[in-house]
Every structure is written in C-alpha cells, then in structure tokens.
C-alpha cells in the first residue's frame, strides 16, 4: 500500500521478510509504504505492517529484468491460518504447466482494483512461444503465462504464481492484459539472491 492505495502484492517469506517486485518498492521512501497481511481485502482487516528496510536487486534498472526485492518489516507478522509463509520455487517450470495466480487487480484492462482477493489458473508458456511476443525483453529471469479469459493487470504487480505450494513467479508486467502473455519474475532463477538478501 502507498498512502492506503493498492500498489501491488507480495508473499510472506517468514515473520520478518516479504518478497515482492522491485517496481512496487524501488521508487518510494520507506515511510510511504506499508503492507497488509492476513486479510482477503486490501482495504481493511488483517495486520498493517511498516517497513524497516528495502533490498532491491542490484541489477534492477526499471525494466522487467531483475524485477525483485525483499522487504524487512519493522515488527514481525503474526503468522497463522490467514498469514502463512511460502517456500521458494526451485526449478524451471515447463511449458503447459498449470499454475495459480492471485491478487487484487482489476478484472478488465481499465477497471478498478478488486476489493477482495481473486485467484485463477494460468498456463505457463514455453520459452520460444513467449519470445515471439517479447523478442527484445525476454530474459532467463522471466517466465510468462497466457490464457484467454484471465490474466493479471494493473495493480497486480508482485502477484504470486504458485505451483505445488511454492512461489515461482511475481507479476512484472506485459504489453496488455489478455492481449499479450503476462510476464513474471522467475523466482526460482533468483532464489539464491533472495536467500542471501534476507540474511542481511
């Protein structure tokens, strides 16, 4: 949240750290940001968490590449049924793998954010198919998904892609909702960076 307005999402790594995209946090002062955990609504409920430190990947320049960051919280999250940590993905996802994405983004390209958490199944595209849509932007640190009736959109930055109870992607962007494949930061390819960053 930025001044109470939805900016994007992240996932809980442990009681002190949240994983998100660099885009969500790199352009703000630390006291402008807060996270809400343990609620299906981004507007109320759960726990409001302030930040102690932001660690953005050192190679992030504002593009989709290396779009990853971790945030250390001022006070620990009270973990429970509604606020659970998730493990990091560890391998490459093959084309046609079914994954689940969730977030509060709009249900149409120019719509308003959803007040309640939404989720849906997406299909991972193989590298060559994705490269046809993003010949100048695709890197080994990105994966993409495509479906005809569901896709992340504005305010969905940082939305997780989950496979077998592990986070494999964070929504980074794309050329358009539904009209082009959605691009996600490949968490598995950057998992060593994440593990190192949260030791700081």
Show the helix and strand layout.
Elements: E1 10-12, E2 17-20, H1 22-25, E3 34-37, E4 47-56, E5 69-73, E6 87-88, E7 98-103, E8 118-123, H2 127-133, E9 142-145, E10 160-163, E11 166-173, E12 182-186, H3 191-197
Parallel strand pairs: 6-11
Antiparallel strand pairs: 1-2, 2-5, 3-4, 4-5, 7-8, 7-10, 9-12, 10-11, 11-12
3D architecture notes:
There is one protein chain. The protein has three helices and twelve strands; from the N terminus they run E-E-H-E-E-E-E-E-E-H-E-E-E-E-H. By secondary structure, it is mainly beta. It folds into two domains: 10-85 and 191-198, Beta Barrel (Thrombin, subunit H), CATH 2.40.10.10; 87-188, Beta Barrel (Thrombin, subunit H). The strands form two sheets. Strands 6, 7, 8, 9, 10, 11 and 12 form a seven-stranded mixed sheet that branches. A five-stranded antiparallel sheet has the order 1-2-5-4-3. A hairpin with an 8-residue loop joins strand 11 and strand 12. The radius of gyration is 16 Å and the shape is globular. One of its GO terms (molecular function) is serine-type endopeptidase activity. Keywords: Disulfide bond, Hydrolase, Protease, Serine protease. One of its GO terms (biological process) is proteolysis. Belongs to the peptidase S1 family.
Features of this protein?
9% helix; 3 helices; Thrombin, subunit H; Trypsin_dom; hydrolase; 200 residues; serine-type endopeptidase activity; five-stranded antiparallel beta sheet; 12 strands; mainly beta; Peptidase_S1_PA
